[in-house]
């Protein structure tokens, strides 16, 4: 089973590499991008698309970690509130009732 997984992984990587090669060869036309007055040098379109893909692959985990950190802080706050409420409940249940 382990060998089959390795073979499948190798085939998938080979297909991705072939698709990338075809993409680069098909998108060799030269382009220039202008953003806020800044102009890039003339490069093949595949360079710009690949750069955008890599930036997205880097930005996604960073944003995910940011949101995960915020959720962890909220969870810690809720856990502190829960402990305080449990202490308050224990204190109130220990008090004698005024009948």
TrEMBL record:
Q: What is this protein called?
A: Lipopolysaccharide assembly protein A domain-containing protein
- Give the Lipopolysaccharide assembly protein A domain ranges: 26-90
Q: Which UniProt keywords apply?
A: Cell membrane, Membrane, Transmembrane, Transmembrane helix
Q: Tell me where the transmembrane regions lie.
A: 7-25, 45-68
Specify whether Transmembrane is a keyword of the entry.
Answer: yes
Q: Which Pfam families has this protein been placed in?
A: LapA_dom (PF06305)
Superkingdom:
Bacteria
What Gene Ontology cellular-component terms does the record carry?
A: plasma membrane
Q: Which InterPro entries does its entry note?
A: LapA_dom
């Amino acid at each position: 089973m382990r060998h089959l997984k390795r073979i499948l992984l190798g085939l998938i990587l080979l297909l991705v590499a072939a698709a990338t090669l075809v993409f680069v060869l098909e998108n060799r036309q030269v382009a220039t991008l202008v953003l806020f007055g800044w102009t890039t040098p003339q490069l093949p379109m595949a360079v710009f698309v690949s750069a955008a893909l890599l930036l997205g692959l880097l930005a996604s985990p960073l944003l995910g970690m940011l949101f995960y950190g915020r959720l962890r802080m909220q969870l810690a706050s809720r856990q502190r509130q829960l402990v305080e409420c449990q202490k308050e409940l224990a204190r109130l249940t220990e008090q004698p009732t005024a009948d």
